[in-house]
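Q: Here's a chain of 296 amino acids. Please give me its 3D structure as tokens.
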Amino acid sequence: MAERAKVGIIGTGNIGTDLLEKLRRSASLEIAIFAGIDPDSPGIARARSYGIPTSTAGVEAVLEMSAELTAVYEATSARAHRANAPRYREAGLMAIDLTPAKVGPAVVPAVGVDVGRGAQNVNLTTCGGQATTPIVAAVSRVADVEYAEIVSTIASVSAGPGTRENIDEFTQTTARALETVGGARHGKAIIILNPAEPPLLMRNTVMCAVATDADGDAIVASIDEMVQRVQEYVPGYRVVAGPALDHDLSPAGCRVSVFLEVAGAGDFLPPYAGNLDIMTAAAVAVGEQLASGVTA
């Protein structure tokens, strides 16, 4: 059996702990350090119970081990990652960023990670970006997408302090990913925190404006193939309505609409927290692709 690449996780909250659970199942990645700053973190206790090395020295613990690590997963906040990124770079350590810090190139595993090869920092955009950018990319590879707009609705209870602190970064980073990764000329993103009880699954609306003469069959086939790619690492990802093509948008335009739902795997987080689950699942997929040289 080939030796697994060693990685570190910084951030022992909900996202870091769910990532811990997923990485434990990886055939190609091994957690060498799980680090945070809260000694009472349930995540720290869980990692210790698995025999995984832990530390409450935060980024310092990761940097001390940088020579042993292939990459570090940043599961803290955009503010923290902006401060940590130069230190990772100085240590020659690749960072896979789960925050919307926008430090490195955006990557979405279903679309491909070639843009991240050779980079010392790659960004996983946002949960909305991971859920919707593949659909925009699927449309743009068979038609010109003049404009893409997405609306991500997540359960309010699944939006922790980091998410709430980074709302502006969320919308900006997601919109940019629709353009740089999805291929739209212009992108717009909206996030809604739904306080419904019981909590609802993550839902996403994707709308793309394309020319009226676009090949509708090719668009539908491309979206179907892309959904299957995402489902390889996010089994709870599914289309609940669409793709629908509305040719009455204007004399020169057609609107493609897709409605998505994301259910989490329930590793550490509850199934309704698909918004967090898609980030950790994508993080593992990106790490495995970069470590193995495989592209989507």
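Q: Can you summarize the key feature?
A: The chain has a mean pLDDT of 89.
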